[in-house]
């Protein structure tokens, strides 16, 4: 097992662990934004940069996707590492100036505001971390969104920037977005839900019994397509709102009791 020396601490980790894993084990905080254990670590936001000792020199690497492999010395609190992370944070604040989540993290990192001009309105509030794209592709298995454009024009969008027919409005992208830019907007009068800013709108499923609006229709469809119906009752229950589901369960229970009695 390789030994990782992180500033003043030392831990033993598995060879395939990352520097971030080692830091967590050592109780050392490294800021992260685009890291989540449910998707591949891309290191795209760069906020977890640390220095590693290369013998003749030191090198900045992203902790979330740098595998330890062998004994290694890591500097989380060196002047270079701290300044690198603070510099990245200032750039991110220019991209997403209204994000409360980002401001909270900036404060914890000792960053107050940004000297950089804010990005244009169309780019506003997205830090281009790509977590939404990865969760849509790797977890939901849909791929409704992706990067488009280059340089300052780069953005996360649907193909041709049109409302996506692939999107099932599951909301996973909104849940994982670290700066709260992606939002789920209900349009109850139309019985629909929208994933903003992608403009994707889908119908909400109505409870089979009472007509109450529930989850997006494509989500139910996808879920039912994945479930092996050895438990027959499941399909029936998936089409009911919680109130009607409880009513059905109570009815089934009283039926069993009346047969017994
Ligand atoms: S809401 Fe649409 S874009 Fe977002 S993860 Fe689900 S399928 Fe993908």
Describe this structure in words.
- By secondary structure, this protein is an alpha+beta fold.
- The chain folds into 2 domains: 3-108, Ubiquitin-like (UB roll) (Roll); 131-255, no CATH class.
- Helix content is 32%, strand content 19%.
- The strands form 3 sheets. It has a 5-stranded mixed β-sheet with strand order 2-1-5-3-4, sandwiched between helices. A 4-stranded antiparallel β-sheet has the order 8-9-10-11. The protein has a two-stranded antiparallel ribbon with strand order 6-7.
- The radius of gyration is 24 Å and the shape is globular.
- The chain starts with a strand and ends with a helix.
- The model has no long low-confidence stretch (mean pLDDT 91).
Q: Helix segment count?
A: 8
Give the overall pLDDT as a whole number. Answer: 91
**Ends distance:** 64 Å
Placed side by side, the strands forming the largest sheet appear as 2-1-5-3-4
Bound molecules: iron/sulfur cluster
Shape: globular
* Number of individual domains: 2
Low-confidence residue ranges = none
Largest sheet: 5 strands, mixed
Write down the secondary-structure element order.
EEHEEEHHHEEHEEEEHHH
Portion in strands: 15-25%
The Rg value, from CA coordinates, equals 24 Å
| Residues in helices, as a percent range | 25-40%
Structural class: alpha+beta
